[in-house]
Amino acid sequence: MRDIKVSNSCYIPRDQIEMYMSYADNTTKLLIRKYKADEKTSRRIIDLTARKKTGTVMFLKSGKILLVSTSADTIKKRIEDSEA
User: Fold this and answer.
1) How far apart are CA 73 and CA 22, in angstroms?
2) Average pLDDT over residues 58-70
């Protein structure tokens, strides 16, 4: 099992990542706003941006949603590098 660095001091096991998407897309922004407004889903969101601009939204198999400042392209590259 390989861990993926998603923020300055946070690593996630690669096999726990269900999906990730860029936060630059309006659809993604609307989805996260909807999740934050709902009491049940807002408890699943973990903001790891440290007040920086959100770059990627990661959905974990556990149901948690991570907001990270790292870009989706960087996350993709780190996942590909961990597979090599």
Assistant:
1) 8
2) 95
